[in-house]
């Protein structure tokens, strides 16, 4: 059982706010990882900005970030908050020299002459870069596919979690949705507009 954070700490406040959100568990998580880099880079190279705006891999609803890394490492933690805390604890152990990194966090390779890519694991998830040079060695195209685009894609993990959200009657639904969004990606500002059917 995980230790509870000290009362009145920032971690305890986050746990208390997250406790207001009830989301039924998803049956499975489809993690985005290093094995997907070639497919992502090929789609990024072919689709360009359109793929960046709405990334999707055929037949999949991929998830990236702490939950996905947990599943890839064989530790299926389904809660975004629990997975994030587990990574914070792991980072502390890494800094203390108590354990080594499980997998390389950075990968870069050439795609074709004058074209290369890099993928890096960031706190929010897997981040892809694709760079193309012109015939003179100057920058012709530079695309960045952030984890946020996967998380908040129309058929992505956040949209799926919204369908499993059970708002408490004591908490405004807008607040529940905003906190759920922050659990998936704390770096993104959002504006919630609820339309009742």
Provide key terms for this protein.
single chain, 197 residues, alpha+beta, 4-stranded antiparallel β-sheet, two-stranded parallel sheet, 6 strands, 18% strand, globular
In short:
It contains 8 helices and 6 strands. The protein has about 200 residues and is of the alpha+beta class. The chain has a domain at about 20-105 and about 145-185.
Structural commentary:
- The chain is an alpha+beta fold.
- It has a domain of 123 residues.
- The protein contains eight helices and six strands; from the N terminus they run αβααβααββββααα.
- The protein has a four-stranded antiparallel β-sheet.
- Strand 3 and strand 4 form a beta hairpin.
- It is globular.
- The chain starts with 9 loop residues before the first helix and ends in a 13-residue tail after the last helix.
Strand order of the largest sheet: 3-4-5-6
Order of helices and strands: HEHHEHHEEEEHHH
Binned, the helix content reads: 25-40%
* Largest sheet report: 4 strands, antiparallel
Query: How many E strands?
Result: 6
Q: Beta fraction of the residues? A: 15-25%
Mean residue pLDDT: 84
Helix/strand-derived category reads alpha+beta
Q: Given the C-alpha coordinates, what overall shape results?
A: globular
Poorly predicted parts: none
Radius of gyration, CA atoms, in whole angstroms: 19 Å
Termini gap = 41 Å
Number of helices: 8
């Amino acid at each position: 059982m995980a230790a509870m954070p000290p009362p009145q700490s920032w971690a305890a406040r986050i746990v208390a706010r997250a406790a207001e959100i009830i989301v039924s568990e998803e049956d499975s998580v489809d993690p985005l990882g290093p094995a997907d880099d070639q497919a992502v880079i090929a789609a990024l190279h072919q689709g360009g900005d359109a793929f960046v705006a709405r990334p999707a891999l055929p037949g999949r609803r991929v998830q990236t970030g702490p939950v996905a890394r947990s599943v890839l490492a064989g530790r299926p933690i389904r809660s975004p908050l629990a997975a994030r805390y587990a990574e914070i604890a792991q980072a502390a152990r890494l800094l203390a020299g108590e354990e080594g990194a499980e997998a390389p966090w950075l990968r870069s390779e050439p795609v074709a002459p004058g074209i290369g890519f890099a993928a890096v694991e960031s706190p929010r998830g897997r981040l892809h870069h694709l760079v193309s040079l012109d015939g003179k060695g100057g920058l012709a195209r530079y695309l960045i596919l952030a984890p946020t685009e996967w998380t908040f894609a129309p058929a992505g993990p956040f949209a799926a979690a919204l369908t499993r959200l059970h708002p408490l009657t004591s908490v405004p639904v807008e607040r529940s949705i905003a906190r759920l969004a922050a659990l998936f990606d704390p770096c993104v500002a959002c504006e919630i507009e609820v339309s009742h059917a």
